[in-house]
Amino acid sequence: MKKIKEINTRKTIEKPGITIKDLGGFHPNPDEAKWPIGSIFENEGKRLYDLVRKEKPLLIVEIGGYVGCSTSWMAKAIRDNKKGKIISIDNQAHGGKWSLIPKELKQFVTYVSEDCFTCKVPENIDMLFEDGMHTYGFTQKVIERFPAKIVVCHDYMHWDCQNTVAHDFDKVLGKPNEIFFEKPSDCGLAIKYVR
What we know:
Layout: H1 20-23, H2 42-55, E1 59-63, H3 69-81, E2 85-89, E3 109-112, E4 125-130, H4 138-145, E5 148-154, H5 162-173, E6 178-180, E7 189-193
Parallel strand pairs: 1-2, 1-4, 2-3, 4-5
Antiparallel strand pairs: 5-7, 6-7
Helix pairs in contact: 2-3, 4-5
């Protein structure tokens, strides 16, 4: 009996690496939370991802990287766009250098562990993501110090940030072009196209 040579017809599938399903976010239900309190919610991360994919910013400056949830969502979009970088500034980065960012996304991020009001301001900022201190005047100073074509602020709709984040955002930029505010988040993203 002749031996029939077996031919492998399956194509080699490249491992996709981290996907948006892997990233997650904070959730009030601990069983659903992939990131600690203080991180953005998963649906906010998806909105950030979609924004970066669509607008294709070459330089994103993030103020308030915390442990890296929002950084990870934007870095994933930059990786998928095959261009761009993030400068993440946080003088209180927990766990050292945004410790929870997936390893394969870290190459798209430059970490700056300094005060955002004394560090060097990069030129040609395409997008600013602000999620720093929620004290009166902080958001205004950040927006004025880091001029960008697109400005996104987290916690715009949070009940205790109406007199700080929302007030400062509106004072400098006027009302947002979009307010992304969906449950389970109680924070919200304000998005303004400044161009």
